[in-house]
Amino acid sequence: MSTLPESLTTAALLGTARSAPEFGALHTAGAAGELAGDPAATLLAAAALEATFLTAATVPVVRERPSPAPDDDRPVLPGAAAERLRALLAVRSPLLDEWFEVAARFRASHDIVVDLLIVATTDSVHRDRLIALTGARGRWVAARHPEWADLLPPDPLDDTPWHVGPPARRRRWFEVLRAHDPAAATATLAASWGAQTAAQRAELVALLAVGLGPHDEDLLERALDDRSRKVRAVALDLLPRLHDSAFARRMAERVRQWLLVDGSTVTLAVPERPDESALRDGLSDGPARDLLVAAVAAAPLSVWREHAGDGVLPEFDVDDAIRTALTDAWGRAAVRQRDSGWAAALLRRDGTVDTSVARVVPRDILLAHLRETSPPAVLDDALLAALPAPWPRDVAEKVLTALYTKLTTTRVVRDVLTLLAHRAPFELADLLADAANRTDDLGRLHLFASAADTLTLRKTIHEELS
Amino acid sequence: MTAPWTLQQINAVAPDPSSLTAARGVASAWLETGHDTTALWGLCRGRGTTPYRTAIHPSAPAYTCTCPSRKLPCKHALSLLVRWSEGAVPTGQAPDFVTGWLAARAASTAPPAPADEPVKAPDPATAQRRAERVAAGLDDLDRWLTDRIRHGLGAVDHGYDTYEAIAARMVDAQAPGVASALRALAAVVNDETDWPARLLEEYARLHLMAVAYRQRDELPRPLLRSLQTHLGFGTRSEEVRAEPAVRDRWQVLAVRVTEESRMFTRKTWLRGRSSGRWAILLDFAHGTARFAAPLPFPGSLVDADLHFYPGAAPLRAVLGRQHGETEPFTTLAATGLDAALDEYARMRGADPWLRTWPVLLDAVTPTDSEDGWYVVDPSGRALPLAGDDDSRWRLHAVAGGRPVTVCGDWDGTALAPVSLFTGGQVMTW
């Protein structure tokens, strides 16, 4: 509707005592001309006529139709599962990761897309998975909304955010580019290296952990010479993960010089003061043993091949302190180089390893170890933490049996029960509830019962998403 | 018996979202369930030794359960409905507790026998006194309006107190409809950049009421009834029920509950499937959003008599006799933009004080154009879309740039959407 014409509003604003209204230009001029009497009443009557005409005479305008949202072939998320998601999001449940994983084959129904986008604006942890759940429709809507457009992953081929965006958006774009084309990301960062602040350099170099490869070596070497200790620390964390690099060769050479091996006897020859090059590679002043551990942990494990004999691990005649130090360093090297052979060998030799090392052990070897180990020893929370879900039923039952037959600390009970609740097969819920009923210890009763509840809830989640 | 309810229908009757979650928790606790042509029932294992006995009369709908929950329907009833919707409730012979309950319900809800004596007509002397008070009040109002126009809207005071004073005078004159229109005007001046035009339009509308009421004896009766309604005269429900019944298969297009100072109003948009006629049902509840009459949910259809409030453009109605069960509808005959605008013009012509009229637009696409929101029809013709941003984005997300059917209120300027239909799905907000 067009609003009342100015000829009427002006007369009304000025007052009919001072200005006489003019009706000639109205749509309803004919009828208004018939009005007579008090000018104020006449003006109101003419306004009533014209307003009625205008509202009733509205005609459509011409606008373009939007391009339709693309289709999303995934099945619609069941209503019960959508309600569940709402409840889990409200309490920021630790089960959300699992929920999103199981729900990946669904798309949200269109009527909850806006709700999910609103949650995504404040929940950066689950943002990308929420957006994925909203699917094609969510991306289509978000792209049209000024506050939601940032929720979408940026286009890696359009580097505008890199040049003009605020730090968070630059970082996001860089992450996407890194996932899309790792070498291009390295080149982009190298090109603008000098223009970044130390904090930005540290933050961006850390993002190279994804897609790390030979193309990163030059930039990481450059980062070793950085003024900022933070940047150097990040580079020192990443460089040992590269196989066959100059850094690896330098470390291998140092290990050969610092640890003189003759048969099974070993002599330490760590220098009093590390040289310039060693300092640059992160080997700062300290006790000889610390320096050795740092060098071994950063050197390629292939250094030891000539001393290993038939096995993977070399056997040295050394005192316990050195032996522990070497084991520790080898473990760290196995993790950095993702060497499953070494990780498995360490587990075989020692019967246990750190969680980080156990994560590198192949699943079947880890499982075989847990199956063979004596029942009480199965409560090794470091190893169990490294065994991803789903746990086979026999292993889960062995762990549970050990839990309620063996006296162990409440911390271990709590940690292992948390693992059971999140990784055991659902049928174990009844056994856990039984265990809760049988124990006399109130604290443990609670732990068993809440593990049973978690397991039951997970079962419901999976059923709702089936 | 009606077809099993959809999850959407069950959602609509749940007292709160947590009830549905709780209902899923008892899904495995059913010992036996059954249904016949009238009712659904089941025994549900609870905490005690005796199972809870749950029964539902879906077409009413009415629920009973022996559990101690004060929610209605309780989680057991909801769970039973869900099982029924999944086809997991077999047919059977209703047990005694069900037949007994149904019989008791039938006895208590049977319509009261029609009174022998005719409805008492209001005292003509009282009506006459009221008409005179209103007329005197409107004369004062008209003097006030013309005085202000004479001095100029730019020169007079538009504070809340000024409008409150004249509104209070209208309350005294028993014209509350006029009073509430006046109370809204101070905000128009404060909030709107284009206030002179809007204010003049409102003044003109009130002036037209005063002028028309002065000639009330010559007005056609339906127009006088419309005017009286706008002024704030109540209409006695016996009088509405005495209006001729309009039978149709009424499609429920939208339901909206609003609250103002603990008074809950439920507005239901109905459209006759065969006549295309609009009707609005209003229900009121004080304190809680629990309404006495059961809620027909959007997307359903009921074969019933409606009695319209008398007026020149009758819209508000009450539900009379129901001729069949409520059932979901799958097809919906909507109109194009022209038919909707024509209907609005016709109604506005019949009742010049009318502000909005419902529309049901076929195949329109919501769009966020550079100069605001619109719904666009397949040939590219568009009407502005009103409403808050949140609901417009929801509309946009559900439509996804494709044509949908939109139900809403048209006020001559913009469309305020209340529900949307697409692919057999209904969405309201």
From TrEMBL, chain A:
<dbReference type="Pfam" id="PF18944">
    <property type="entry name" value="DUF5691"/>
</dbReference>
<protein>
    <recommendedName>
        <fullName>HEAT repeat-containing protein</fullName>
    </recommendedName>
</protein>
<dbReference type="InterPro" id="IPR043746">
    <property type="entry name" value="DUF5691"/>
</dbReference>
